[in-house]
Design a protein that fits this description.
alpha+beta; 5 helices; globular
Length: 220
């Protein structure tokens, strides 16, 4: 399963967990969300390792011939995760550095950021690590980013071009909501539960069956 597919499934599971009022179904979804988060992190790590190996192989091949220059490979990776919050005027991102990848003020490169994408590269002793938040819901002022470096993480403040509260961070999230705004929540939830049942182990199937039985007996 691709990283994009896993991320989409995780987003959908988290949305359904917020919508349902059944404690049993919330428990089932919480378990699935934890598994999906582990799979997303594993997929990100694998993608980073694959990219690094490919870069190293390309560099070795370029310098293997008689006239080939020796080039140092720059290891690149992205932050494995970040959290975000907002005020009326700004977006705030908190990104934790992996072990050994921390850096300090002046290491950031914002040349790839624009009104719709927050892309910041940080130079560290190990290589380049990137904070990438693309397809923002609304424009920001990318030329006014502010940074605070703390032990183990960095805080990035991004001014909004137009003040106000955002419903979602990215346009992709908004499109998903708009697409499903007329879809009955119960129908979406039942589809999700059916998929979990079909793909789950015996314990998952027993838990879902009991949750659905209780839901029918005690509708909320």
């Amino acid at each position: 399963m691709t990283l994009d597919t896993l991320a989409t499934d995780l987003s959908e599971a988290e949305r359904l967990a917020k919508e349902t009022t059944s404690a049993r179904l919330q428990g089932v979804l919480a378990r699935e969300i934890a598994l999906l988060r582990d799979e997303v992190e594993a997929a990100k790590a694998k993608a980073t390792e694959t990219a690094a190996a490919a870069a190293a192989a390309a560099s070795a091949g370029a310098g293997s011939g008689p006239a080939g220059p020796t080039r140092k490979t720059v290891l690149r990776r992205e932050f494995p995760s970040y959290s975000w919050d907002q005020t009326e005027k700004t977006l705030k991102f908190r990104a934790s550095f992996p072990d050994g990848w921390a850096c300090s003020e002046g290491s950031q490169d914002v040349s790839k950021a624009d009104d719709d994408n927050v892309i910041v590269e940080f130079a560290t002793d190990k290589g380049i690590i990137t904070l990438r938040v693309e397809n923002l819901q609304k424009p920001v002022e990318a030329d006014k980013l502010q940074f605070k470096f703390k032990p183990g993480y960095v805080l990035v403040t991004v001014p909004k071009r137009t003040w106000g509260t955002w419903i979602e961070l990215r346009n992709k999230d908004k499109a998903t909501i708009d697409k499903k705004v007329d879809e009955a929540p119960d129908k979406t939830l039942m589809t999700m539960m059916k998929n979990l049942y079909d793909d789950g182990d015996d314990e998952m199937k027993r838990t879902i069956s009991e949750a659905m039985r209780q839901s029918r007996m005690n509708p909320e």
